[in-house]
Design brief:
Blueprint: H1 7-43, E1 44-48, E2 63-68, E3 77-81, E4 88-95, E5 100-104, E6 107-111, E7 121-125, H2 128-134, E8 144-148, H3 158-161, E9 164-165, E10 169-177
Length: 181
Amino acid sequence: MSRHHSPTVIDKRRKILKGLIIVCLIALCIEVGYFLNLQLREHFSIHWVSGTSMEQNLEDGDAVLVRKDIAIKRYEVIAFKLPEESEMFVKRVVGMPGDAIIIRNNRMVLNIGAPENFETVYTFQINAPVAKELQALTSIPEDSYFVIGDHVDVSKDSRTFGFVKKEQIEGTVQFHLANIH
């Protein structure tokens, strides 16, 4: 005895199967999207530049994509948060852990070359409280960085607040999207 179904029963089954496949695909897309969102948030963040301290490279209102948990190199732009400030900072790394320094009369000489010869140096005017705090040091501590804004005349940076600790750094700026006025 063969089992035959009418065309309307077969059409109903096909519609149900098609509906189940569509629901499963939508659920799969939602799960994949959720997973990607979690991964992106774990490894990246977005911040908006506020102020003029990084001009000409970053302008007020630009968006920056920050990659978390990446090795920091000299001259890279980093995003970090200071405990006493509500805003995130975006500055360029100039001084690395272990770099030799000399502090005299509110000036810091930063040696970025071989530690023994001071052939490649930067000199920065730093504020008196920072100079007093760092005066006894001969090198940048292992967990610290000296950062400056590209627009040095207006930048609030390590010359004002001292070294940035590694645990205060969120990551390095990987990409920036210019603000369209």
